[in-house]
Design a protein that fits this description.
- The chain is mainly beta.
- The chain has a single domain, classed as Sandwich (Jelly Rolls).
- The chain is 13% helix and 43% strand.
- The protein contains 3 helices and 13 strands.
- It has a 6-stranded antiparallel sheet, with helices on one face. A 5-stranded antiparallel sheet has the order 9-8-11-6-13, with no helix packed on it. A two-stranded antiparallel ribbon has the order 3-4.
- β8 and β9 form a beta hairpin.
- It is globular, with a radius of gyration of 16 Å.
């Protein structure tokens, strides 16, 4: 299938609305698990070795600031480049553009470290990506940002936090 239409991707892949914004569908969840005894204390149970989703953002939509307890690797598939906005533990804001034009500074994948706040938006009509999480994603590991709390913690990032919460 060749498409340049976000609605065709949503239909073809069976994507549904994601709580953080955009559309998603789980594509893979490992049948094997890591025991909670072998994981850091931040995990409250066993986790799949790895999980992955398809994720799509249309123009004007965004992934709200959130964080998870695992590393998350974003892979570019189709459409316009995507901009990730990451706030690290020290409050440093990093912007990373994911796409397929290295001459323009784009990279095809990027990993957001566990526990960092991050948001994203498409730089055009839409962006289709994959997101791989390891140890595997569980919604109990997901925290949506509270705008006031995040601004209080990182006042130097107030403008971008207001824009993506």
């Amino acid at each position: 299938m060749k498409t340049n239409n976000p609605d065709d991707w949503i239909k073809h892949l069976g994507l549904i609305k994601h709580p953080e914004g955009g559309y998603f569908k789980e594509a893979y969840r490992s049948d094997e698990t890591i025991s909670s005894l072998a994981l850091p204390e931040r995990f409250a149970g066993d986790r799949a070795f790895s999980t992955s989703i398809f994720y799509l953002l249309k123009q004007g939509e965004y992934s709200k600031f959130h964080k998870i307890k695992s590393d998350e690797t974003w892979h570019f598939y189709d459409g316009s480049p995507l901009e990730l906005l990451i706030i690290d533990f020290n409050g440093t804001l990093k912007k990373v553009q994911i796409g397929l034009d290295p001459a323009s500074g784009l990279i095809p994948q990027f990993t957001v470290p566990a526990g960092h706040w991050f948001a994203a938006h498409s730089l055009g009509e839409y962006t289709l990506l994959g997101c791989t999480v390891s140890p595997g994603f569980d919604f109990t590991d997901f925290e949506m940002a509270n705008q006031k709390t995040l601004i209080a913690a990182f006042p130097q990032c107030k403008k971008v936090i207001k824009q993506f919460t």
